[in-house]
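The records we work with from here on pair a chain with its fold. Taken together, the tokens spell out the fold as the letters spell out the chain. To see the layout at work, look at the sequence and tokens printed below.
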Amino acid sequence: LSPVCLGSLRRAASINAEYMGNKNRFKELRRGFRDVAVDRADQFYGSRGVAWVRLQDRTNGENYWIGSHHGPLPINTGGALGGGVVAANIIRLMNEESQSGDRVILAGDFNADSGSRTVRELKEAGLDLRASDWVDHVFTRDLGVVVQSTIIRGTGSDHRGIKNVR
């Protein structure tokens, strides 16, 4: 996908800016949402999940699994379940809902910095960490070379956006 622009995405937010802007290019194959975490009691706002979609690029036939995650609080704890369980739940979801050959993009506000257990275990499970801005991350699998990552300021959010181009 060129460009892929995924920033601080929330549960109800658009999953992929390129898809939303060009529905003629992409065919939606399937979509869903799954809870993968819950906030700890001392900063409880509820459960946290991954909104996802499978798309097919009509120009080249490539399939994509794209997920948006908003992680649990407090920051760097993995919430009530812990970072290891959160990472395992995300990987389980990706493995169950993506198919062999899918290019995978997972992005969002993980409420976990790049040194957290959640991020470490996602990387250990085979995801490539393509860009980070404190607790916001873009991971990929089988996407190929990313030639440029840019932090986008002035997004109107309390988070900056992250743009990856391949």
Observations:
- The CA atoms of residues 73 and 127 lie 22 Å apart.
- Strands lie at 4-6, 26-38, 47-57, 63-70, 103-109, 128-133, 136-141, 148-152, 161-165.
